[in-house]
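DM from R.C. (forwarded with permission)

"hey, sorry to bug you on a friday — could you get me a structure for this? deadline for the figure draft is monday and I only need the backbone to look sensible"
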Amino acid sequence: MIKNIKSSKVDESCEAIAPSSTANIGPGFDVFGLAIDLFYDKVHVRKLETKTGTIRLNISNNPDLNPKIPTDVDSNSAGLSVRKLCTDAGIEYDIELSVFKGVPPGYGLGSSAASAVAAVIAVNHLFKTGYSKNQLVEFAAEGELASAGTRHFDNVAASLLGGFVIVKTSPRLELIRIQPPKDLSIMLVIPELPIPKRKTEVARSVLPNFVPLANVVHNVASASTVVSGFYQKDLRLIANGIDDMIVEPARKGLIKGYDAVKGYAMREGALAVTISGAGPSIIALGDSNKDRNSKIASAMERGFLDSGVNAKAYVCAPSLGANIV
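My reply, with the result:
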């Protein structure tokens, strides 16, 4: 439960929500993000009368969420992001952040990104700082240092903007948002697998330092196909592009049962299957056929179960992104 702060009178408050997301989507490592209308984090921001530049952080979440969410500002994505924004904006007021976790952490669903996005959206609105969405994405990415050890933008951009997002970081941050096809469905399965501390760092550590040129060419072509599919609202074209020869082969060994889950889902009619972000969750793409989508979700659960892993599957859709509530 959230503890009451009695030391300071509350002047103003604001609340925002931000959705879960999936990153990479096959060949788009650190470039593609897709917001998912399944889980949401909510952050309530209160401006206090005192002016010491202190950020007070409270966490309220489902007790089943594991690992536990850090309550130290320097180790929490929402806290780090807000601290960066406040420093940049010159905000001196003390702030209380109450983070309500809805996105399960550690499963490749953009949990740390959702907290950071909701926090900066709320602070920006409350203090009328006027930052653009691109600037807010940069502040939110600061929070990824807490979980991934590095700033990356795919999850935070998707969670903030909604829809399908392409991230270009050099020579400056550029974000391209594309509205997904209306008939795009997402089947998502979350396995009950042990989550290592700083899981994203672990998942990055298995990636190859050197990649054959042929694999690079393959992934560029695949990523281009995914983008073309989103622009043309063509589900089959999107699915044809989800063919990764670099990251998926390196990471699938971290996910017990991955090949079984993928095979079962494809046999039930999934258009494509890939790892959600750094995993261990897995996503499959489908169309508007609800019966088939339900069978795909069940098949993904069965693939894990046959591999000795319990799992829960969901059928969901793209999200419109973060909002003030």
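R.C.: lifesaver. The chain has eleven helices and eleven strands.
me: no worries. The longest strand covers residues 28-48.
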